[in-house]
Design goal:
The structure holds 2 protein chains of 2 kinds.
Chain A (H helix, E strand, L loop, with lengths): L6 H11 L4 H15 L4 H14 L10 H9 L2 H10 L6 H17 L6 H18 L7 H22 L7 H12 L6 H26 L9 H7 L1
Chain B lengths: L1 H28 L6 H16 L6 H16 L13 H11 L5 H16 L4 H20 L3 H15 L5 H15 L1 H10 L7 H19 L2 H18 L5 H17 L5 H4 L1 H5 L7 H25 L1
Helix pairs in contact in B: 1-2, 1-7, 2-3, 5-6, 8-11, 9-11, 10-11, 10-12, 10-15, 11-12, 12-15
The chains are: A mainly alpha, B mainly alpha.
Chain lengths: 229, 307
């Protein structure tokens, strides 16, 4: 039964889908695949050790952690918050677009703060809610839409710009995996070919956010002015 | 030159081992963590593997990796009690430095590209050298002491936890799959259904598989290791597709899946909980239209750039 070798793929898919311990799932998948493929136990240990050592380059991003730690202690988050707070008096869509741009540029320089916890919840979502409710109180459904959209914009920026940074985990993983598969590629060329999607995401999400402004009464029409009186 | 680069890289692996050792020592000292022994062992074992990788025999390293798996399975690795940062220091420092606080990050990103492009040392050495230069810049600008830099390092590593080592373990898994012939087998199985050789069909198959498997697993990195070996290589790269285009756009096709799945809890469920949203799927609903649009664009982009 040659197809038994696919057991490792099944273990990975089910293990991740059922949220089992990820480290153990990956190791069990590797062990099961090798054993089913007829690799002996001593050879299996050699294979694991060799594959892990040869892929140490994937963890090269650990070297960037001390620097990030030092600047985090000295106000990285505060400086970013100050910059974002200058985005007052804009429409909801424009606040979201500028945040997206800031997020993408920061990612390109390897600054990946935990966006949802540090920016979206305390800063972006409240700012967008304030901008959307200048002329008319928001319904609870609109508030939920804004929260969802703010979180979504953070994810778009984070996902499509993180590969612009040459020492990011994703870029190093791609380079190392492709090398193991016999098609070595340079991390810098991965960065180059990640640029188109970062720009396309920026453009498409910007249009999406400009369209978002139509959900709210931003001009203060007759009806809302009557309400204010 | 290649030999020199390999030896030079070893220096940086020793440095990584040192940072992991810091995390190990502080995990052992964290009395309030019920799993402090296991957590400390986890980081010390990794420190040994990184720093001593060239000296230890492969089977020993393989055994140590199995031990890491057992520690993780028995729930003996926990972040524990990590000291946060002093907000007062952060605020006064932010006032003094302003936007200059971003300087070390800019140094890191630009210097690593410059070294990769304009010296024969290559991208990996570039990352290593520029990380060290960026750290020195940061320490100098913030007037930090060695002791606080030590604590900043261990804090970052410990708060990243086991997630930090996952990409390397997945790369290891990819190598084990290759050695066991899994890639050839999936290729054979799929080629029974879809013909190999049609460029557009291969690209569609690979990008869709990346997105769908990422949705099921909730992790784009894991999908990349499996799907690139099984579909990306035989159906696109072996047909003449450029490996770098396939990797770069294949990975982001996976991210389209991440945007549409409740399995990616960190990105799609965490905000729902943080902001007390009424609609559990509220984030995914905002993301799905963009994710699908981007997926279609990426299929065409890969097709035109790779061939």
């Amino acid at each position: 039964m040659e197809y038994l070798k696919l057991i490792g793929i099944a273990i990975i898919i089910l293990g991740f889908a059922f949220k089992l311990d990820t480290i153990a799932v990956v190791i069990v998948s590797a062990v099961a695949t090798a054993l089913v493929a007829g690799i002996s136990v001593p050879d299996l240990l050699t294979l694991l050790g060799k594959s892990f050592i040869e892929n140490r380059v994937v963890s090269l991003f650990f070297l960037t952690l001390p620097m990030i730690g030092v600047i985090e202690r000295h106000g990285l988050k505060e400086a970013a918050v100050n910059a974002i707070q200058k985005l007052k008096n804009l429409t909801p869509g424009r606040i979201l677009n500028l945040y997206l741009l800031i997020r993408e540029v920061a990612c390109a320089f390897g600054i990946t703060l935990s966006g949802q916890v540090q920016f979206v919840r305390p800063l972006i979502s409240p700012m967008v809610q304030a901008a959307a409710s200048v002329h008319e109180k928001l319904t609870s459904k609109q508030v939920d839409l804004i929260k969802g959209r703010s979180a979504a914009v953070d994810n778009f920026g984070n996902f499509y710009a993180q590969n612009l940074f040459v020492a990011s985990g994703g870029v190093l993983l791609m380079a190392s995996t492709m090398k193991s598969l016999g098609h070595a590629i340079e991390p810098t060329s991965i960065v180059l070919y990640s640029i188109p999607m970062a720009i396309i995401t920026l453009v498409i999400t910007s249009l999406y956010n400009i369209h978002f402004d139509r959900q709210f009464n931003l001009k203060g029409n007759q009806k809302s002015e009557a309400n204010h009186d | 030159m290649t030999n020199f680069i390999t030896n030079f890289l070893e220096v940086f692996y020793v440095l990584i081992g040192l940072i992991m050792l810091f995390a190990g020592i502080e995990s052992f000292r964290d009395k309030e963590n019920p799993a402090r022994i296991g957590t400390g062992l986890f980081w010390v074992i990794l420190a040994v593997i990184f720093a001593g990788g060239r000296l230890l025999p492969y089977p020993v390293i393989g055994g140590l990796i199995l031990l890491l798996g057992v520690l993780s399975l028995l729930k003996q690795i926990k972040p524990g009690n990590i000291k946060g940062i002093d907000e007062k220091i952060a605020e006064t420092s932010a006032k003094r430095l302003g936007g200059w606080i971003f300087m070390p990050s800019v140094v890191l990103a630009i210097l690593s590209i410059v070294i990769a492009q304009f010296t024969p040392l290559g991208g990996q050495i570039g990352i290593g050298i520029s990380s060290v230069v960026a750290l020195i810049t940061a320490v100098w600008m913030t007037k930090s002491s060695a002791k606080t830099a030590y604590h900043d390092s261990e804090r970052m590593v410990r708060s990243m936890g086991t997630a930090g080592i996952l990409p390397q373990l997945l790369a290891m898994l990819g190598a084990v799959f290759t050695a066991s012939g899994v890639g050839e087998l999936t290729a054979k199985a799929i080629s029974g259904v879809f013909p190999v050789g049609n460029h557009l069909l291969g690209v569609v198959l690979y990008c869709l598989a990346m997105a769908i498997f990422t949705m099921i697993m909730g992790n784009g990195f894991a999908a990349f290791a499996v799907i690139t070996a099984g579909i990306g290589i035989p159906f696109v790269v072996a047909q003449g597709g450029s490996p770098v285009v396939v990797a770069a756009i294949g990975m982001t096709s996976g991210y389209c899946g991440t945007l549409m799945t409740p399995m990616a809890a960190n990105f799609n469920s965490l905000p729902v909980a943080l902001m007390e949203m009424k609609d559990n799927m509220g984030v995914i609903k905002q993301q799905a239209p963009i994710a699908l649009t981007l997926l279609v664009i990426q299929i065409f982009l890969m097709y035109f750039l790779a061939f």
